[in-house]
Each structure stands twice: as structure tokens, then as C-alpha cells.
Specification:
The structure holds two protein chains of two kinds. Chain A is α/β, with parallel strands linked by helices. Chain A has eight helices and 14 strands. Chain B has two domains: 113 residues, no CATH class; 62 residues, no CATH class. In chain B, strand 3 and strand 4 form a beta hairpin. In chain B, helix 10 runs antiparallel to helix 11. The longest helix of chain B has 18 residues. The chains are: A alpha/beta, B alpha+beta.
Amino acid sequence: MMHAGVGLDMQWGSGFVSGVDGDRASDDVVAFLLAHAGRFRHLFVSWQPKGRQRLDARDYFPAFDDLFQRLGSHYPLRALHHTALNLGAMEPYERGAILDLTCALVERYRFAWVNEDVGLWSLHGKPLPYPLPPYLTTAGLRAAIASTRQVQAALPVPLLVEFPGFSWGMSPVVGRMHAYDFFRVLAEEADVQVTLDTGHLLSYQWMRGLRGEDLLSELERLPLDRCFEIHLSGCDVEGEAFHDRHHGVLLPEQLELLRRLMRSCPNARACTYEDPAVRTGGRVTEESAPSLTAFLGAVAGP
Amino acid sequence: MRIDEVLCALVYRRSFRERFRAGERAELGIDPADEADLTAIDLDELDRTADVTCRALLEASHRGVGNLRDAFPRSIRAYCTIRDETDLPFDFADSQAFAEFGRDAPGPPMEAVFGDFLETALDAQWQPVVREERALAVLRALVVTPTPAFAIPDWVRAAPAGHYAVVRRAEAPLLVAALNGRLVTGPVTPLIAGILEGDAVEATAVRAELRAMGLVA
């Protein structure tokens, strides 16, 4: 049985806000979630660093507490989308403090899983505005497998590795391994479940020059039986550029890919509309409203 | 160079990218065994990635400080008298100061690294301006992050109520301090600057005043 859910990137200053009375979830986000509570069963929130303090889970409790207290018993299934595990890194990457913080959040909020795109979220300690694809090389695959095993061993809940994005402008791909094969071997060797993001999959095939029906090809190379979650976030094509915009507007190809994955992934249980375009009062933009409806219809099935 | 070091240099260092594009692989220290994997890189896509990434270094906002353009307005105006403003993100990303950023954890904050870059790039006459803006940026960061994940630069001194720096300049020395969650800044006398920098001078009344502010023990 597939359930619909929603995922929110809780940036500080928009998703979470700080005021004189402390940290809390934005009223618009909470209004959106309450208005759609009957349509979605699960919710994931993306972890974003609050600032440059030494990592301490207690700094995050007030905002997360506020969000989940205001949601009450809605969204009984909750998860955490990570942004700092850096599973694709080949250089030494210290994860001790971030894993301690993650475990504290998982325990306090009973997150059912943690996921993160397999990519480069920083390069040798230097910041990146968007994650880069992993090294599609034998050594890159070995490093990703080792990091995934390390993180999974440290977490009390399943780690779902997510197929990375290959959007125009942030995808200098190193290595010639097919990314679907890289991802399948990673999942098998690290023995983890996976998240398949429709925009990320399409962006890879688009980058390879495929168009039309070919964009949906080669799905059998993916670890379909390990897929637990499917993501859909707003994407856009501009000339020859594929953009993973997270603006709530889905491409028809994403919905078609969702239908095919739902048929092909026997263990998929969660289908997530990622980063709805929430505006004042919790309403979604007029531009994205049809996509939300189409998403819910596709998950419900014929 | 390992292949991950090559990618890092390709993304941040314009000079490295240009030599890579010109085929100077051996001169750059690239392992011939990595050649096939590196030729998979779409060089136009690499340029786009580097462009977005380097610009983001100056545009990314930090809580309590803003972005580097906000924090260093006078220094950047001075830089623009010797270089085109569009070069600034790429010059910074290609600098020795930035090369050190992230190498050790914890390392200095980005504001300190950018100040170090500007101090090297600009004439000595601009040194006090750069140091003043650098001190304001780093101490502002310490106001909102009193126990930071970054390393506090050695020109910032610990105080009972927080941290401070003294900036020497042609006019009166400038005190910049993060004390009890507030930014305190203003000109001070040479005597006070000396005491704050560790001079062993008698000045009982002044020391008592500084102690009351939480600047000295």
C-alpha cells in the first residue's frame, strides 16, 4: 500500500523562524500542513544548520518541538531528510557530531527513517551551494559504500540513500560509470533501502542527452526492490537545461515516471511531494496547485 | 593529486581550470590513471558549476553577519580600484587564504579568511580598513555564536564576558567586542588599547572600568 506524504525543506528564516519568544515553525508552513493533513500520511523535514554554533541537538529542540506540537496527531509517520552526511565524499569527513545530533532528533521525534541524496555536500570542507553528483568511479563507489555503512551502523532507524540530482549548472560528473549502476551497487553492497527522486532520475537521463520516452528507460538498472520512498519535487526544462527547482510544479514526465515506479517497486510504501510552494496562509501557488492535485491522484491510482 | 583534490581545485580555482583545459595534466600533478575519469567532465558544465559556487562564497549569508559583501563594503570598493568586481569571487576562491579554508577542522570562519585574502591583495594603506571590517564581521559572528564550530582567530582575545579585538589605525585604536551577547565597538585611548593587548601598565582606575565591562579579569 502506497501512502502520500509531503517533505519540507525547513530553512532557518523561512521554514523555521527565530523571534523574541524563541524558535518556532513558520505559521504558513503549519497552516499548509494542517490544511492538508487529511491528504498526507507522512511528513519529512529537511535538517538545515541553524548557524555556526558547535552542533548540539538542544539548539534544534524548540523549533522542532513547536512544529510537532502544533501538528498534534496529524502526520503519524515522520522522517528526517539530511543535508550534512556527505555520503559521496572521498576525503576524510568527520561525522561524529552530526550523527550524535541526528540520533538525538530521531529519538525525540521518533523519525521512522533518515535519508540523504548520495552526493557531495561540501568539497574538502569548502561550501557548495547545491550538492554535486558523487564520483562515478570505482574508488568513488567504494567510498560511498563505506560512508553509507558507517552512517547506517550509527543510526537507530533505516538510512534511505537517495539517487542524486544531475541538474544543469551543478553537475560536473567525474567518472564514466552509469549512475543507475553506481546507485544499485551502492544499495546492494551497503545493504540499505533507497529513495528514488523522479526529478533526479530524469535529470540524469536528460544530461546524457536522452529525450522523450527514452528519459524513462533503463529503470531496470536501479535497485527497484530496495525502493521504499519516491520523491517528486518541482522541475523545469529551459531550452537544453534541466532544473530541479523545488517550486512545486511537476513535469508530466515526473508523474509518468511515478506511475511506472509504483508498478515496478514492490516494496515502495511512501510517495512524497517535496517542497510545496507554500505562501501566505499556507496556500500553495496557483501555478503549483494542479501539480499537487495530480500528484495525489497518481498516488491514489486509477 | 587524488581525484577528489582535482575536482576541488577545478571547482574553486580558476587558474587550475584554465591549465586543465589547456591539457597541462602532468604539470598540475594529475595521476595519469585518473585521466579517463576526468575526461568525462563536461568542461562547460564545470565552468557553470564554478561560476555558481564561487559567487555563492560572497553571497551566502551568515546569521548575525550577513554576506561578505555586506561585511566588507569599503574593502571591496578598494579592491574594485585594482580589479574588476566580477573577478572578486574567482580571485578569492583561487587565493592561498581560501585554499586553507576547510583544510583543518575546526578552521577559521569565512569572514576571517576573506579578510586575510583582502589584506594580501590590497596595498598596505588599506590594511586598517580591512582589519576593522574583518574584526566587526568576526565579532558579530561571535555575538550570535558564542561557542562556535569554527576556530576563533588568534587576533581575537578571550575576555571574561566574551571576546574582543583591538584594531590599530591612524586615528585612535578601535575596540570591537562581543560581550554578554552584544556587540560593543568604539575608539579607545592608546592606554586602554595597550592594556587590552597585554601591556603590564599600572592604571588601576582604567583596569577597574574594563573589569566592570567584562573585558579583563
